[in-house]
Amino acid sequence: MEFDKSYTYKNIDEAFRAKCVSFALYMLFGQKARQDDWHQLADIFAQSAKNELEHSRIFYNILYGEDSLSDTCENLARGVQMEKAARETYAKFSQIAKEESFFKISALLEEIQNIDAAHMKRFAVIRENMDKANTFCRDEKQKWICSRCGHEKTDFCSDAVCPVCGACQGYSRIKAENY
Ligand SMILES: [Fe+2]
Questions:
Q1: Which domain holds residue 76?
Q2: C-alpha 133 to ligand 1 mean position (Å)
Q3: What confidence score (pLDDT) does residue 67 get?
Q4: Bridge partner residues of 174 (DSSP)
Q5: CB of 80 within 8 A of CB of 123?
Q6: Which of 94, 127, 161, 174 could form a disulfide with 109, with the two C-beta atoms 3.0–4.6 Å apart?
Q7: In the chain, pLDDT over 90 holds for what percent of residues?
Q8: What is the Å distance from ligand 1's center to 140 Cα?
Q9: From the centroid of its chain, how far is CA 99?
Q10: 112 and 95 share a domain?
Q11: How many angstroms is it from 143 CA to the middle of ligand 1?
Q12: Distance, CA 136 to ligand 1 centroid (Å)?
């Protein structure tokens, strides 16, 4: 029997989605427990969320293959598509909420659409930077910062290896201040 036409496929897909929901809820439950000073319980929720995330990885791999998460460029492209799809869905949901006179919910859905648009743009730009190999090199000099130790340098490219802490180039980013 073909796996993707089987009940088992549907069940694993359902289990994957349920694990994602459990992960999010346990994170939220943990935050609330911490606010209430239930710190051991907060840690237990956080640990449980971590377990749920791992279970979601297992189910995801069954559904899409063991190496389905191995390509970060592809994951970014997937992120763009997911945000695009979410925007379209929320546009419909917002319209329905308006028709049903849930104006506050309708407005919230519109705002979340805008956030998703920003996510979509961010993923797309990062992907483009990767494709053009200019994540760590730009045409104009930039102020680069090592996000591990804070070392800064102004140049076209960031250091391949941080001269202070030895972090790889993946830790470097263009410095941005917003305080
Ligand atoms: Fe560093």
A1: 72-131
A2: 21
A3: 84
A4: 144
A5: yes
A6: 94
A7: 96
A8: 22
A9: 32
A10: yes
A11: 14
A12: 15
Positive/negative CA dihedral, 68, 73, 76, 81: negative
Task: Output the pLDDT for position 70.
Answer: 84
Residue 97, amino acid: A
Write down the pTM of the prediction.
0.86
Question: Looking at the structure, do residues 104 and 51 belong to the same domain, yes or no?
Answer: no
Q: Which CATH number goes with the domain that contains 114?
A: 1.20.1260.10
How far, in Å, from the CA of 152 to the mean position of ligand 1?
8
- Phi and psi at 142, nearest 5°, equal -130, 160
Residue 175 is predicted with a pLDDT of 97
pLDDT digits (tens, 9 = 90+) for 90-146: 999 999 999 999 999 999 999 999 999 999 999 999 999 999 999 999 999 999 999
CA distance 125 to 120: 9
Q: 144 - beta bridge partners?
A: 153, 174
- Which phi and psi (to 5°) does residue 177 adopt? -115, 135
Residue 78, in any domain of the structure: yes
Task: Tell me: pLDDT of 12 over 90.
Answer: yes
In angstroms, what is the span from residue 44 Cα to ligand 1's centroid?
33
The Å distance, Cα 174 to ligand 1 centre, comes to: 13
